[in-house]
Structures are given as structure tokens and as C-alpha cells.
Amino acid sequence: MRDPRLLAKPPVCRLGCLVLVRNPRGDVLLVDPDYMDGLILPGGAAKPNEPPHLAAARNLHVETGLNLRLADVLAVDFTPADRYLERLNLVFDGGTVHDDVRLAVPPRRRSGLFGARFVPARQLPDVMAPSQLARVSEALAGRALPVLLHGQRAT
Question: N or C: which end of the chain has fewer CB within 10 A?
Fold first, then answer.
């Protein structure tokens, strides 16, 4: 039974679903958005009632053309409200892709991206904002949590 009091004024918190993808050398896949300075992990917001791992996979595909199954979360990052609404960001483990993987970034007018590329880990401080770098550094630490849907591992 649904209690209408619980839905009368639901909390507002956006859910960001990001993906950490590496190549065999350990370089990190980043996208270059036209709406902010620096490179960021690929991903985006979940739609209402969309499972986060599917939102991350959908956004990754839209931004890079990659189709990956995502089952583990590497980092959870809460961003308090400032210019935007508060946001909970989940960084999913996209694993390692082959060196010959082809990235397919849509045109900037559709995607808001200048492009995507793999960046060596030692160069991340040079191309990322400090908060973005901290998120990636934590994700690279290798700790993972399983994604659950109603208590069961997501498939």
C-alpha cells in the first residue's frame, strides 16, 4: 500500500550515473563537454524510475558508442546544491576495453561534447577539475559494491 504522505513532496535529488572505462594500459576514458571546463567521466542523469546501472550504460552508449554491461559501483559522490540541485553521483565499473575499440561521439550540436579520449592516469590532474579528479581517483582505488535491484544483483 502506498502512503500518499510519502509522495506529497518527494525530495529533489538528481542521480548522476557515470562510468569508469580503461584500456589495457590503464588509461581512463574521458569526455570533453562544451558546458564546463576540463574532461569528465562519460555518463549522465538517470531518467525518472530508470535503474542507475541502465542509465549509466545508456548514457555511455549515447556519448561514446560503447555498449557495456555494468554491475558494480566503484564510488558514490554526493554533491551539495550550489548552482545546480543536489546530486548523487554513482561511478560504475566499465572494465577494460581493447586497444582497438572505436569511440563514436555524436556531433557537438547533438551531444554537447567536443570529443572523447583515453587519458593516462598520470595526466588526469592536468585535464580534470579537482572535484572530478577526486571522484576518479577514488573509483580507481578498486573497491566495488554490487548493484542491487530490490535486494537482488542487477543483471
Answer: N
